[in-house]
Amino acid sequence: MAESNSADLMDKIVSLCKRRGFIFQSSEIYGGINGFWDYGPLGVELRKNIRDCWWNDMVRRRDDVVGLESSIIMHSKVWEASGHVGGFTDPMVDCKVSKQRFRADQIFFSAVVVDGKNVGYVTVLESERIAEELQEKAETFKRKKAIQGKLEPVQPRDFTEAKSEEIPLIPSPATGEPGSLTPPRAFNMMFETYVGALRDESAVAYLRPETAQGMFVDFKAILDTGRVKIPFGIAQVGKSFRNEITPRNFIFRSREFEQMEMEYFIADDDDWAKWHRYWIDWCRDWLVSVGIPASALSEYNHPKEKLAFYSKGTTDLMFKYPFGVQELWGIAARGDYDLTQHSKASGQPMEYFDDVKKKRYVPHVIEPAVGVDRILLAILCSAYCEDQAPDEKGKMETRTVLKFHPRIAPIKVAVFPLLKNKPELVKKAQEARDLLRPYMTVFYDEAGAIGRRYRRQDEVGTPFGVTIDFDTLGEKGPELADTVTLRERDTMKQERVKISDLPGILLPRVR
Ligand code: ATP
């Protein structure tokens, strides 16, 4: 990861993403719409590669996981049974003066205590340095009010923990003044719509806030295909929608995002903790396989008292984003809750018959659930790098490189004829391009100085560059005819290889 300060790094990534066509603000020409993003030409390739890698590793290369694509809009009873209609809420707080909205669990405050006496409150928004920022604010508060005495260390709490008598005294993060924050209230994050021409209660439907319910609702149908035996999983990739109160941190928290979820069904008496561990390790190894360093990952076990009553355990794989260590992938042991709920609500049994043990039971489930966009952001943050490289004249300059793992790089190889006005060079370059195209994404570029063309590809993370020069035409002797230079992005090392060998050399390196 780059050695620059965190806010700076985020700004550089956001600007690179826009400039080079990875990610744009949705509807930008109309001023944008908060929490929605568009993926440009390179962004879609990167996203597709992440999705495909996951699908190949999770479904195609395993005997025990099958795929599913369920509809985005489902019967509204699905969301009643799953508990989303009643409980898919976040605690919301309004600032009555600024009209801004906050998630209560993202506002942190502390009493300012001097010589054992509470003299006021300070507030900050969630960040990597909550305690330090609160302490700095407490010191400023004491100095500005000219209060004498010993300031005690701050005790950070989030706004959901504020006592009702404290709420009027806690400053709004928007105005810095107390008195304008409302008590937190539950806000349902599901987007509502209507199905059909009538706009009454019976027509209400929801855009799914997760893909997982599709796997539970279709559990019986998949079981009846006879393809699966416990333990087995059902996997799905697709869009989910949440009307997040405060979408932020670029694509980290959006209102429309894509999930990759898998429900792994195990026997009711199986060792759930063993399977839970298995899937946590699988997810971590998978992230490393797409280029996220293990050193940037950590595990967070949800404390028992904060788990839903049915949950046996939830572990989040956390990534060190520039804006703090945050959840990337949640791996939850959900017991038999979801299948039981749907069985009760639909009247359809959701049982599995074990023909060895001659026993019928509702399976338990382990759920690894991740967002494509959060992985994509973690990959961008891990890949972004600035180093020093010589320019055309040998002078050192700063080079921006996205060190994508070749598996997920949007373009695998760029092909350059040394000069665009030499038809023999162009012809050979086009031959090399056409030879590689059936196997991988190739970018053909003949515009500008060769050094500049390399830089452009470094900046979008293309791992290999192929240059066709006069040696290729045999001008330095027949032994070099039909050979090209193959340049590796990170080391910038070049080797001379035969054009016909390119697919054989590159394929194993980009898979
Ligand atoms: P958070 O606490 O960050 O809101 P969550 O615990 O509600 O996340 P889950 O319901 O467990 O998230 O969703 C599974 C995964 O989907 C998350 O680990 C994350 O990768 C992704 N995800 C959830 N909400 C969003 C969002 N608003 N934008 C992008 N990705 C999301």
What does it look like?
It is a single chain. With 511 residues, this protein is an alpha+beta fold. It is built from 13 helices and 26 strands. The strands form eight sheets. Strands 3-12-13-19-16-15-14 form a seven-stranded mixed β-sheet. A five-stranded mixed β-sheet has the order 23-22-24-25-26, sandwiched between helices. Strand 20 and strand 21 (396-402) form a beta hairpin. The protein is globular and about 85 Å long. The mean pLDDT is 95. Adenosine-5'-triphosphate is lined by residues 210, 242, 244, 253-254, 257, 259, 327-330, 369-371, 373-374.
Offer a concise description of the structure.
This protein is α+β, with helices and mostly antiparallel strands. Helices cover 28% and strands 29% of the residues. The protein has helices at residues 6-19, 41-60, 76-82, 84-87, 130-144, 212-217, 219-224, 272-289, 337-346, 372-383, 423-436, 450-459, 502-510, and strands at 23-25, 37-39, 65-67, 89-94, 101-103, 107-114, 117-125, 157-158, 185-188, 192-194, 204-206, 232-241, 256-266, 297-301, 313-321, 324-335, 352-354, 359-361, 364-371, 384-390, 396-402, 413-417, 442-444, 464-468, 483-488, 494-498.
What is the topology?
Blueprint: H1 6-19, E1 23-25, E2 37-39, H2 41-60, E3 65-67, H3 76-82, H4 84-87, E4 89-94, E5 101-103, E6 107-114, E7 117-125, H5 130-144, E8 157-158, E9 185-188, E10 192-194, E11 204-206, H6 212-217, H7 219-224, E12 232-241, E13 256-266, H8 272-289, E14 297-301, E15 313-321, E16 324-335, H9 337-346, E17 352-354, E18 359-361, E19 364-371, H10 372-383, E20 384-390, E21 396-402, E22 413-417, H11 423-436, E23 442-444, H12 450-459, E24 464-468, E25 483-488, E26 494-498, H13 502-510
Parallel strand pairs: 3-12, 22-23, 22-24
Antiparallel strand pairs: 1-2, 4-5, 4-9, 6-7, 6-8, 10-11, 12-13, 13-19, 14-15, 15-16, 16-19, 17-18, 20-21, 24-25, 25-26
The site of adenosine-5'-triphosphate has 16 residues, from strand 13, strand 16, strand 19 and helix 10.
